[in-house]
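Appendix B, example 12.
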Amino acid sequence: MTYRNIIIKGDPLHKEAALKASNDITPGMACQKDASGIFPSTANQTNLQVAIEFGNDGRGVTDVYAEDGEQVRYVAPRKGDELALLIGTSQTLAVGAELAIKAGGTFIAAASNPAVARVLEAVTTTAGTQLARCEVI
């Protein structure tokens, strides 16, 4: 399915932060923030924050935040919120599969890692990443 927005359903807390130098963030990725700015999440984070599309200037879900210091819009979703999350490469996920955060901010099958969301549609990625409808758990 093609998504125009990262937030599908719910009322997550909206935030903004400057992009940390030498980092790129794609809407749908998990991200985290330190004193230097916002950057893609490291593996197995449980404090879920997700980059969203800028939208105010015509940019969409496929437009990457790439300019150092650029303001990145992101959300801190609540349990039950539905978002289009960026699934990592080489993933085959059935409906209901639980997701964990992979280093670099994409999402993968949770296996023994801490789960932060579950997929609401079957998804298979091969050579690239793909947005998929997910529910925060």
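The mean pLDDT is 95. The first strand starts at residue 7 and ends at 9.
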